[in-house]
Design a protein that fits this description.
single chain, 321 residues, Serine Threonine Protein Phosphatase 5, Tetratricopeptide repeat, 3 domains, 14 helices, 75% helix, 0% strand
């Protein structure tokens, strides 16, 4: 029965990766049913396998054409109940599975707009990281970065953009011991930086945002370009590369318009994976036009102030493409 449950879980994972979600869900349901019949309370490895099927089931339920987030939430809650009923210190993968269940639970609560509840669940995951931070394991670094990215998204939904920026920045920094790298490390790096860029761009869009200093702006734009560089080096696209360019353009237009055209030209240069994205190219042409209008408006407001006039003329020349 144990082997049959393993086979069903592995089959479900393959189907999920191939996008065959209904078939994957059936496999995970069968794996759960098989393992529930086993004495998992006295067999931690069986409990670990049962939790794996429950977590994967929750992931599939969130990705269906008609998502079922409430059912996913129940699946993650059941995985947590299973893992909390057995000793976790026999294998480092056991607490990591519990961490994943809590992160996915909190993320789903955020998707259901239970934002304060989601933050409390992320706090539980944080406490678990503190309890199990006894050794360096890449798996735990990736999980911690995942927690930061997902919590940053919830903070953004709450309108707490500064906290979201700080949290996603933490997600970037925890990855430092693993970078550079490909595969899951590259994915985590792209997601963390993309979330920070999104939070920064959204923060800048708010009326009355703070006057950001030059060092802060430089760090923000560097991060945009780092993320695009990871996409190019790793070949991991994740559908985020175009968004990174959009976020970067918003930040440059607001803070450093004199470098906007250069950024866009580099991002869409021949050989770039985005060079053939006609929709994105059109959007960036519009951003350049808006930046020119911004500069012209500032010039009209203070045409006789030599310093302002000289600065805006430099910006206008830089925006000529």
């Amino acid at each position: 029965m144990e082997q049959s449950a393993n086979d069903e879980t592995l089959r479900g994972i393959k189907l999920m990766a191939a996008g065959e979600l209904d078939g994957a869900l059936d496999c995970f349901e069968r794996a759960i049913a098989l393992r529930e019949e086993l004495p998992w309370r006295v067999q931690p490895r069986t409990a670990w396998g049962l939790a794996a099927a429950l977590i994967n089931r929750g992931d599939v339920l969130r990705r269906l054409a008609e998502p079922q987030p409430l059912a996913a939430l129940q699946s993650y809650q059941r995985a947590i109940e299973v893992l909390e009923a057995v000793p976790l210190d026999g294998n480092p993968a056991f607490p990591e599975r519990l961490l994943l269940a809590w992160i996915n639970l909190a993320t789903t609560e955020g998707e259901l707009h239970r934002l304060d509840v989601a933050l409390r669940s992320f706090e539980v995951a944080d406490a678990l990281f503190a309890d199990w931070r006894t050794e360096f394991r890449p798996e735990r670094v990736l999980l911690q970065s995942m927690l930061c990215v997902n919590r940053s998204r919830v903070l953004m939904d709450l309108g707490r953009f500064e906290a979201a920026c700080d949290e996603s920045d933490r997600g970037v920094k925890v990855l430092a011991p693993l970078e550079p790298g490909g595969g899951l490390i590259a994915e985590a790096g792209i997601r963390s930086r993309a979330m920070r860029c999104r939070a920064l761009a959204s923060w800048l869009d708010r009326p009355g945002h703070r006057d950001f200093g030059e060092d802060w702006i430089a760090a923000a734009t560097d991060e945009v370009e780092e993320a695009i560089g990871i996409v190019r080096r790793s070949g991991v696209e994740l559908g985020l590369a175009a968004d990174l360019v959009r976020y970067g353009a918003r930040i440059y237009r607001a803070c450093q318009p004199q470098f906007l055209a250069e950024f866009i030209l580099n991002a869409l240069a021949e050989g770039s994976p985005l060079a053939s994205d006609q929709a994105l190219c059109g959007e960036m042409d519009a951003v350049i036009l808006l930046a020119r209008q911004d500069a012209e408006q500032r010039l009209l407001i203070a045409p006789h102030v030599d310093e302002i006039a000289a600065r805006e003329m430099r910006i206008l020349r830089s925006l000529e493409r």
